[in-house]
Amino acid sequence: MEHNKGDLTPEPRVAVVVFLLKGRSVLLGRRRASVGNATFALPGGHLEFGESFEECAAREVKEETGLEIRNAEFLTVTNNVMLDQPKKCHYVTIFMRVIVGVDAPKEEQEPQNLEPHKCDGWDWYEWDHLPQPLFGPLEKMVKGGYDPFSS
Ligand code: 8DG
Ligand code: MG
C-alpha cells in the first residue's frame, strides 16, 4: 500500500520504561493519558532520535520523577499492540532496570510527581502486592510470570 507524505499512517513506536527496584518494591504511577488512562505503569517514554536506551531511561526518569539514575540495565523487550485504546497504538517497549541503592538513586531520594498532568503520583509498591489495574504491557509481563528482580 502506498502512502503520501503527510498521511497519518500509524507506525510502531519505540518506548523505554524503567523498573526502579527498591528492596522488593517497584516504582509505579497511575497514568493520566489517552493510552492506559488510570492504570499503574512504570516511568518511561519515547525513545528520541539518536538516544541510547540508557540515555532515554535516565532522561525520562529524571523528567518524570526527579530521580537521577545511571547504569540502567537492559532487561527485555516486548511487542505491544494496543488497538482497544481511545488512541490506537503499537509500541516496541524496551524494559530497563535500576536497583536503588546500587545503581542510584540514593535510598533516601524520594520521587516527585514532576508531570502531574500525566501521572497521579509515584509510589513504591511491593512486587507481591501490585496495585490494580496495571497498564496492559506491564500486566502482560506479570501474568506471564516475569520477574524483574531475578533477571
Ligand atoms: P514523551 O512524549 O515524554 O517521550 O513520552 P511520555 O508522555 O512520557 O509517554 P508515555 O505514554 O509515558 O510512554 C510512551 C509509551 O510507552 C506508552 O504510551 C506505551 C509505552 N509503555 C509500555 N509500557 C509502559 C509503562 O509501563 N510505562 C510507560 N510510561 N509507558 C509504557 O508499553
Ligand atoms: Mg511517561
From TrEMBL:
It comes from the Eukaryota. This is Nudix hydrolase 1. Its cofactor is Mn(2+); Mg(2+). GO terms for cellular component: cytosol. One of its GO terms (biological process) is DNA damage response. Belongs to the Nudix hydrolase family. GO terms for molecular function: 8-oxo-7,8-dihydrodeoxyguanosine triphosphate pyrophosphatase activity; 8-oxo-7,8-dihydroguanosine triphosphate pyrophosphatase activity; dihydroneopterin triphosphate pyrophosphohydrolase activity; metal ion binding. Transmembrane segments: none annotated. SUPFAM superfamilies: Nudix (SSF55811). Keywords: Hydrolase, Magnesium, Manganese, Metal-binding. InterPro entries: Nudix_hydrolase (IPR020476), NUDIX_hydrolase-like_dom_sf (IPR015797), NUDIX_hydrolase_CS (IPR020084), NUDIX_hydrolase_dom (IPR000086). Pfam families: NUDIX. Residues 11-147 form the Nudix hydrolase domain. Gene3D superfamilies: Nucleoside Triphosphate Pyrophosphohydrolase.
